[in-house]
Amino acid sequence: MLTVKDAELSFGGIKALDQVSFEARSGEITAIIGPNGAGKTSLFNIISGFYRPQRGQILFDNTDITRMRADKRANLGIARTFQNLALFRGMTVLDNIKLGGHIRLRSGFWTSGWFYGSAQREELALRAQIERDVIDFLELDHIRNAPVAILPYGLQKRVELGRALAMQPNVLLLDEPVAGMNREETEDMARFILDIQERWGTTILLVEHDMGMVMDLANQVVVLNFGRQIASGSADSVQHNPAVIEAYLGTKATQEASLQAS
Amino acid sequence: MITGNYKTRYQDDESIWNNWAKRWGFALSIVFLVVFPFVADNYMLLLAGQIAIFIIAVAGLNVLVGYTGLMSLGHGAFFAIGAYTAVAIHHEWPGTFPLITLVVSILVAAAFGVLFGLPALRVKGLYLAVATLSANFIVLFFIREHWFEEWTGGVRGTETPNAVFFGVELVSQQAKYFMIAPIMVIMLLFAQNLFRTRFGRALIAIRDKDYSAEIMGISLYSYKLKSFAISAGYCGAAGCLWAYFFPAILPEDFGLNMSITLLVCLVAGGMGRTLGPIFGTMLILLVPEMLKVIVSMVTDGDAMAQRYFSPMRDIVFGLMIIGFLIFEPMGLVNIWDRFWRFLSRWPFAK
């Protein structure tokens, strides 16, 4: 579905990504993990089009989208959520989610301004579809008319997921969907992610620090460290990979040193 | 307590007037607009016409500044372009049907809007405000220039035509009011509709989080330019009506001073709301008139006293604006909202 081939991205002298290659298989959950600053969000940024990699390719269904503009990628069905919330804070929950339907609607400024015929039909169809597929699904019905700015953090995260879902995406990029959430909220979110995968067969890419959740959900795990891909494979194989253990826990020598120090 | 706001169809929930208060409010304001010219004297009609024209221009500025979040200090220039386009059209083809003039003025102003909006593709905020500032000077320079004097009247200004509808010339203040008020209502409704559908939502998205809007598939370039075009088009319409409303225009009527007045109206009323421009314009244009009345009452025609009291007017007006920015930075609509919130919960909570 989505393939990253030898992607390389650097800012000045710093290599944010170096030879990253993996394939997110259709309908599966691919988790991308790594310590802070490993390049996970940079990887998302080249997939969603904010940065262009200096070398390498990004393929969507075997078409090269490396140089495609960010807003054009939405038409392919690439949706994403952000690590720090990027909701439209001046709008209600409903309007935020409606924006996910932007690419599927056709009305321009003229028909919008008069709100007749096609524009009206389109808007009402969108509303009905959103109510069914997003608001009911994510259990947001009690807050649909609330301004997003007043909602608690966990709900805002869920609204952002809803906005991405309203795009009816083929590929969904989730950047730390449960960061800062308590256990209940995390479990809710994990359930939603699995439901999305099951109901629509969406290909999901997940960046997350909550290892329990990653190991439970992911069909495939890609591990980055200092921009370099150090491992990839099933959750199980990655967990026992010595390079991964080293990246997360340090080498044996440093472990012993810190033990002695304490 | 306002209750009974219960709906069974999405269509009802999505309508502009989704409760009785809004429906009645709209109906009453239409009745007011119709009855007003029959009870008002010429002076009040002059003010009303001026306010209505300004409301259109401020509503246009609201599209750009309030909804798209792009700053502009150049909208007086688009106002001027609308006015001078109307004059030029009548100079070339006297007796053009006024609505055609209106549409052409809108289109010309919108084209200039796109031109002066180009910096918005690169810069935001204060930098954009400075970039748009140039529009005032460039446009007024060409209006004053003697090459165009035949159409613009150059520095000395020019007389403006009256609108002629099917052989009936609109001369009286009242007749002109009946041309301007419906256009204002239609343009306000258009703006209101725009911001509850796809196009307007995209603009608000750009204001609130531009990179997030891009991910939703909104092309920032094209939407920012369209926003400039619409907002300049509204100012062009206002300019065209201005030319029809007043017997003559001068280049000094427009420019930076007007750009700032438009912005002040918008800020005082409340940005990003349909009612904002209406409230703000009424406040900013009516308060000086009221102060005039008060001053003349206090001084009672005494020339010496008037000399001291007249500057007070500007001081009071200035203090009022500062007070607004400090105590009600969200504008008059915020007071309005609070009032309705209070009413809808009364007597249970404040």
Please characterize this protein's 3D structure.
With 262 residues, chain A is of the alpha/beta class. Chain A is built from 11 helices and 10 strands. Chain A folds into 2 domains: 1-77 and 169-262, Rossmann fold, CATH 3.40.50; 87-167, no CATH class. In chain A, helix 3 (93-99) runs parallel beside helix 6. The longest helix of chain A has 19 residues, at 117-135. The radius of gyration of chain A is 20 Å and the shape is globular. With 350 residues, chain B is mostly helical. Chain B has one domain (19-272): ABC transporter involved in vitamin B12 uptake, BtuC, CATH 1.10.3470. Chain B is 73% helix and 2% strand. Chain B has helices at residues 10-14, 20-39, 42-67, 75-92, 98-117, 125-144, 149-152, 173-194, 198-208, 210-215, 220-245, 256-269, 275-299, 303-327, 332-345; strands spanning 158-159, 164-165, 168-169, 248-249. In chain B, the strands form 2 sheets. In chain B, strands 1-4 form a two-stranded antiparallel ribbon. Chain B is globular, with a radius of gyration of 21 Å. The mean pLDDT of chain B is 91. Classes of the chains: A alpha/beta (262), B mainly alpha (350). Chains A and B meet through helix 2, helix 3, helix 4 and helix 5 of A and helix 1, helix 8, helix 9, helix 10 and helix 11 of B.
- Please give the order of strands in the largest beta sheet of chain A: 6-7-8-3-9-10
The CATH architecture designation of chain B is Orthogonal Bundle
CATH topology of chain B: ABC transporter involved in vitamin B12 uptake, BtuC
Give the strand order, joined by hyphens, for the main sheet of chain B: 1-4
The biggest sheet of chain A amounts to: 6 strands, mixed
What is the global morphology of chain A? globular
Approximate helicity band of chain B: over 70%
- Under CATH at level 1, the class of the largest domain in chain A stands as Alpha Beta
pLDDT averaged over residues of chain B: 91
User: Remind me, CATH topology of the largest domain in chain A?
Assistant: Rossmann fold
Alpha-carbon Rg of chain A, integer? 20 Å
Q: Determine the number of helices of chain A (DSSP H or I, runs of at least 4 residues).
A: 11
Overall geometric form of chain B:
globular
Number of domains of chain B: 1
Query: What is the strand tally of chain A?
Result: 10
Biggest interface found: A-B, 43 and 33 residues
The total tally of domains of chain A equals 2
Figure out the total of helices of chain B. 15
The residue ranges of chain A in which pLDDT falls below 50 over 5 or more consecutive positions are none
Calculate the mean pLDDT score of chain A and round it.
91
Oligomer: heterodimer
